[in-house]
Structure formats: structure tokens, C-alpha cells
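sorry for the late reply, my laptop died twice this morning and i had to redo everyting from scratch. anyway the thing you sent over, i finally got around to it. pasting the sequence first so we're on the same page, its 324 residues, then the predicted structure underneath. double check i copied it right bc i was rushing
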Amino acid sequence: MPDALEFEQPLLELESRIAALQAEEGSPKVRDEIAKLEERLQRQRQKTFASLTAWQRTQLARHPKRPHTRDFIRVLFEDFVELHGDRLYGDDAAVVGGLARFEGQGVVLIGHQKGRDTREKIARNFGMPHPEGYRKALRLMQLAEKFGKPVVAFIDTPGAYPGIGAEERGQAEAIARNLREMAALQTPIIAVVTGEGGSGGALAIGMGNRVLMLEYAIYSVISPEGCAAILWGDATKAPEAAESMKITAPDLLRLGVIDAIVPEPLGGAHRDWDAAAGLLRAALRDHLGDLAAKSREALVAERYEKFRKLGAYEEASTPRAPAS
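ok and here's the structure:
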């Protein structure tokens, strides 16, 4: 398989052997050998993906063949009409969004888009939005609120773009404004971390009533490489940083940061886009149905409480001075 990761190499070798045998004459002996190898491959694949490290999950989340926002839109939604621009500066190709239907229900879609080949990656700025991307997203969320449509946001970004132009145009303010407005948005919001969920660049469209996460996605305040560079002055210690940061879906579900894990096909979403989309479709159907029954006031109150409860801390009482 193209772009196989290092830990997938033993699986790739078995797949190659099976493919070579399938190209031969189909004698009973060859068919028996293929069956044995396929059974062995299945066992090996289950064993490998049942014990992935945080760094291996990070590699899967960044896999070049992993489905992106536009891929999920094409498979999951109908009648998609993309809307462009923030009505202030311009259009940011790192954020896509527009109107669509999900199983007959009107929705507003927003998501990061990384790109596939070199030309598209540059055009999409590798999925790192400028301020106008977040302002476009906010414009679409306000449109959803105006017409009573739920928002579905797909998160897949290394983070907001830290360039000079982005800072000059108010990157921090754009992210902060989105957080403030999403906290009070009177319509359902479902956020799905499909690949990388990087820092405020992810959270700026991720403040949902429900936050879902694909099985092999990651979500963190900084990349493992960035964390390693800060803590140890050595970005090559990223695997150790990934383990410490608790960035995987099981860790974040246990900590209450996300609400549910969406399973992926064995081997990852990049191996079977349709199967991955089918599993996500079932999750979206359930959560959209649940949120549809709630009032606007309940949606805002629940979202507020959800994010206020994140984290753990202790309050230590200040000892009183002895009476004089």
C-alpha cells in the first residue's frame, strides 16, 4: 500500500505476498496458501491496531491518504453548496463551508481542508487558517442560527496559521470571537475531529454541543513535536511527548474532553473511506436526532456547562492570620 507507515510494514509484506499468489494460477494449493495468509494478516492487523502508541495514532491522524473534509462532504451529504468569503477581507481556502442536506435535513457545514498534492496543499495553506477563514466560519454559523439549521464542523488542522499577515489581520481576535459567539449560538453544533485537532486553530470551530472524535484522530493544545521542542529542546522526542500529552481519543474520552469516539475501519479511515463515512453517518444521525429535541435555551445552557466543567483543579483555603 502506498504511504505505508513504519509499523505497518509487516502487514504490507503479507499483503504483497497475497497479491503475488493471487496473480498466479488458481490451483487448490495456491488457494489454500492464500487463505492461510489472509487469516494470518487479519490476526496480525487486529493485534497491531489494538496496541497502537500515541505516536502511531498521530501518524495515522496525519496519513496522506486519510479522508479530508471535502471527502466526507461528498460521501455523507447531498446538495452541497459552498459559500466563500468573510465579507471583510477575502476567502480562505483552508476553511471550506456551505449549505447541504444530511438525510433530508438541512445543515450548515464547516471544516478545515488540507489538500492532497503539493499545489493544493499550498493553496489550502496545509489546512492552517488565516483570520478570514475563522470569520468565514463565524458568518456561516450565524447563518445557521438565523435559519434554524444545525452546524456540523470537521476539525483537521495542525493549528491556526502563525504568519505575520495572519497576526496583522487579528488572528487571536478572530479565534476569541468565534469562541465567544459559539458559546451563545442558539442552534445545535456538532464538532468532529477527523484528523489533527491542533490548538486554538481547532477549537475556533470546535465548541460544540457534542464533540466527536474518529478513533485514530488526535486533539491537543500543541503538536507533539512542538511540545518536545519546548520541554526538551529536541523535536525528535515527539513520541515521548505524545504519550505524556494524552492526545488520543480514548484518553480524551476518559478525561471528558470529547463526548464519543467514532470507530474506524480496521487499519484506519484511509484504507476504506466509504466504511469510515458509514460509521460517521450513524454517529451524526444519533447526535443530530438527540439535539433536535432540545430548545434553543437548553442548547446554549448545556454547551456552556459542558465547557465550564473541563479540567480539574483544587482550591486551597488561605490560612487565617492569628488574632492579635
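The first helix runs from residue 9 to 22.
thats about all i looked at so far, will dig more tmrw
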